[in-house]
């Protein structure tokens, strides 16, 4: 005789005995899952934002070269800058260039050195600031192209220094990639922790309801039917907890996004989440629910084989 899953809740006379004696979204399990999902979504959002920032910044500066005219005498510095620009104009593979205005240079150093330190505004001697020429190449900067530009510019401007813009930010990129890997490791560890929590909850419920399960087997119930009850109950709890956790994570992510958006600084501007990233975040509670249900089913089936 085959026992329907609904009979498993009515095995003690007229009373109501459940294999997992708790209501929906009651007990610790849904809230544990909510916390796990929230932390996973936040860590995933951080990893995706870091990846977007690195990719966008690299695409922006991969063809950039900076020429600095490091000369303390203003008249000599201006003369060498003009000669360097003429040399760059005749070079093949140059998509564009511009000399950074003095006002922009003053704005860059103002947060650290204050206003008026260069003496440009008042016509007074001040800290000498190198002239900067921003060069954009048609392709990515290679060591050969960089050496060619340096050789051509240094012939007419001995105090020039030529650097690839990507070299400046290479340590920053490496640090951000390390943080991205760390975020993905955190996501994986949280998934393992979620599975472990479900495993412990399923084993606890099995031990509490051992006598009921034995009666179900005597009446003809199968291991698969018993496992289905646990799987369904854990699925409800995981779905509810996952929805709560995702809502909490979205509040945190949006709040942090607004705070970083107000900074308006450098790499932070490139760290916005794309529409595909939001889909990944929305998939977190779905994947958590599937993982919880699969873990519960495998745990129950494995325990039942040893029990009976």
From TrEMBL:
The transmembrane segments are 31-50, 177-202, 238-258, 278-300
Question: Which GO terms of type biological process are on file?
Answer: cell division
UniProt KW Transmembrane keyword: yes
Q: Give the residues annotated as coiled coil.
A: none
Q: Which domain of life is it from?
A: Bacteria
Q: Which UniProt keywords apply?
A: Cell cycle, Cell division, Membrane, Transmembrane, Transmembrane helix
Which PANTHER family is this protein grouped with? CELL DIVISION PROTEIN FTSX
The protein's name is Cell division transport system permease protein
């Amino acid at each position: 005789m085959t026992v329907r899953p609904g009979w498993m809740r009515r095995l003690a006379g007229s009373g109501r005995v459940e294999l997992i004696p708790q209501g929906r979204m009651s007990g610790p399990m849904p809230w544990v899952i909510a916390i796990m999902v929230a932390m996973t979504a936040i860590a995933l959002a951080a990893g995706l934002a870091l990846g977007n920032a690195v990719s966008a910044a690299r695409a922006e500066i991969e063809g950039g070269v900076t020429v600095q005219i490091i000369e303390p005498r203003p008249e000599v510095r201006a003369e060498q800058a003009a000669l360097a620009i003429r040399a760059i104009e005749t070079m093949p593979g140059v998509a564009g260039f511009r000399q950074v205005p003095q006002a922009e240079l003053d704005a860059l150093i103002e947060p650290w050195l204050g206003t008026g330190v260069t003496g440009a505004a008042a016509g007074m001697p001040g800290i000498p600031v190198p002239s900067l020429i921003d060069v954009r190449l048609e392709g990515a900067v290679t060591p050969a192209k960089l050496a060619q530009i340096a050789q051509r510019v240094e012939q007419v401007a001995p105090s020039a220094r030529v650097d690839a813009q990507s070299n400046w930010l290479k340590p920053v990129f490496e640090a951000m990639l390390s943080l991205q890997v760390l975020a993905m490791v955190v996501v994986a560890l949280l998934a393992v922790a979620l599975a472990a929590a479900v495993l412990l909850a399923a084993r606890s419920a099995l031990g509490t309801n051992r006598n009921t399960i034995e009666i179900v087997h005597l009446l003809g119930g199968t291991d698969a039917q018993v496992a289905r009850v646990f799987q369904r109950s854990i699925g409800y709890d995981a779905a509810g907890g996952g929805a709560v956790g995702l809502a909490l994570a979205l509040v945190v992510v949006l709040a942090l996004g607004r705070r970083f958006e107000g900074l308006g600084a450098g790499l932070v501007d490139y760290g916005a989440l794309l529409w595909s990233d939001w889909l990944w975040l929305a998939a977190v509670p779905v994947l958590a629910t599937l993982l919880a249900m699969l873990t519960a089913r495998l745990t129950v089936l494995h325990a039942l084989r040893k029990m009976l």
